[in-house]
């Protein structure tokens, strides 16, 4: 015979502790997903200096190669350097020196002194580069002669493309005997 109480026992509703533990698991999983979604951009932001590569430096035009064919001494040029940092881009002007090499080639030197970052100047009457801040001197090819700098002037990567001398301007660590790139 049919008994209503027997039927209720067979289909007992889910007890409160089971329902609460299920909701706790769902809430914990949703919280974990939200935390991960927020943590990923935060970690990318905090580790950006470690992931940023020096390859982001752009190439800048120095001038037509014909202008430098008969070069006998260093020639100062101001170049526009485009920098892109995230969504922000800017153009900065920096000084470089185009220097003839003994073999008929050219090299490009940064005007930033490797000692403390002052602007090195070419003094043609003395046939040398001189840093006005602390008296560092360099030969016409950028070799360190005297003064506090620990290394020669920094040579920049350059190339000739479609008859134009191009350079990749980069900053290097100061107060260091080794030429080390600064991001």
User: Total number of helical segments?
Assistant: 3
Q: Over the alpha carbons, how many angstroms does the gyration radius reach? A: 32 Å
Main sheet, how many strands, which sense, barrel? Answer: 6 strands, antiparallel
> How far apart, in Å, are the first and last alpha carbons?
86 Å
Strand content: 25-35%
> Which secondary-structure class do the elements indicate?
alpha+beta
Give the name of the CATH superfamily of the largest domain: Rieske [2Fe-2S] iron-sulphur domain
Q: Using the coordinates shown, work out and report the CATH topology of the largest domain.
A: Rieske Iron-sulfur Protein
Low-pLDDT residue spans: none
**Which architecture of the largest domain per CATH?**
3-layer Sandwich
Q: Which strands sit side by side, in order, in the main sheet?
A: 1-10-9-4-3-2
Number of strands: 12
What would the principal axes of the Cα set say about the shape?
elongated
> What is the average per-residue confidence, as pLDDT, rounded to a whole number?
83
CATH class of the largest domain: Mainly Beta
Structurally, the number of domains stands at 2
The ordered H/E elements are HHHEEEEEEEEEEEE
């Amino acid at each position: 015979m049919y008994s209503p109480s027997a039927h209720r026992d067979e289909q007992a509703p889910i007890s409160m502790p089971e329902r609460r533990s299920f909701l706790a698991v769902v809430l914990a999983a949703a919280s974990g997903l939200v935390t991960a979604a927020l943590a990923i951009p935060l970690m990318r932001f905090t580790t950006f200096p470690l992931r940023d590569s020096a390859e982001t430096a752009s190439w800048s035009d120095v001038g037509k190669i014909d202008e430098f064919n008969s070069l006998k001494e260093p020639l100062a040029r101001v170049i526009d350097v485009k920098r892109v940092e995230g969504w922000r881009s800017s153009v900065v002007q920096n000084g470089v020196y185009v220097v003839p090499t003994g073999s008929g080639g050219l090299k490009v030197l940064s005007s930033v002194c490797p000692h403390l970052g002052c602007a090195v100047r070419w003094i043609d009457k003395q046939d040398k580069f001189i840093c006005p801040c602390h008296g560092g001197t360099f030969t016409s090819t950028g070799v360190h002669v005297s003064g506090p700098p620990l290394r020669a002037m920094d040579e920049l990567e350059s190339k000739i493309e479609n008859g134009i001398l191009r350079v990749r301007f980069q900053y290097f660590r100061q107060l260091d005997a080794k030429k080390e790139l600064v991001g």
